[in-house]
Amino acid sequence: MFTGIVQGMGSVTSVERSGEGSVLRVATPLGAELRAGDSIAVNGVCLTATEVAEGSFAAEVMNVTLERTSLAAVSDGASVNLELPLRAADRLGGHVVQGHVDGVGRVTAIAEDGFARRVTIEAPADVLRYVVAKGSIAIDGVSLTAAEVDQRSVTVSLIPETLERTTLGRARPGTLVNLEVDVLAKYVEKLIGAERSSR
Predict the structure, then answer these.
(1) What domains appear along the chain, each with residue ranges and CATH number?
(2) What is the spatial distance between Cα 139 and Cα 167, in angstroms, rounded to a whole number?
(3) Whole-angstrom distance, CA of residue 196 vs CA of residue 8
(4) Residues 119-159: tens digit of each pLDDT
């Protein structure tokens, strides 16, 4: 489990693609805290470190993950958001993030708003159904608050700290991002649906 509080940006040093999937190699100081078999969120996608060296790690990305996330478009030299799993004694600074991406969105508009930056992301309808204004959403693994939501998109407002410490500061119209909704919304929907069907 993660919180959506990015701990650092890594740099993709290589992407090995085959019919079996992809192997990402990422350079990051967080590599010193990893062991083979540990989980790490890469742009909001929970992956398993298969190899760990000083200052880097490798992770295998299976085909189903490539089909459902923006990791299929990652190339050498790309920056990625990284987060290590939550420890039992850690503060939950963001919200509950599983690293299970619900869909891929596309940045459609960016507007400066004082010291903040408003970013609008077109998202699939089956993702937006779980997003509410002032509710939580993880975008490329970053825990954010939805400022506005309509039938086609969600808008978030990014503070300078987020712009500096995550890849969202480099996002431009057309950028693909991974989206994960608040899992509590999906549980509520299922429970209400089960109650209605039992009547």
Answers:
(1) 8-83 (2.40.30.20), 103-189 (2.40.30.20)
(2) 10
(3) 44
(4) 999 999 999 999 999 999 999 999 999 999 999 999 999 99
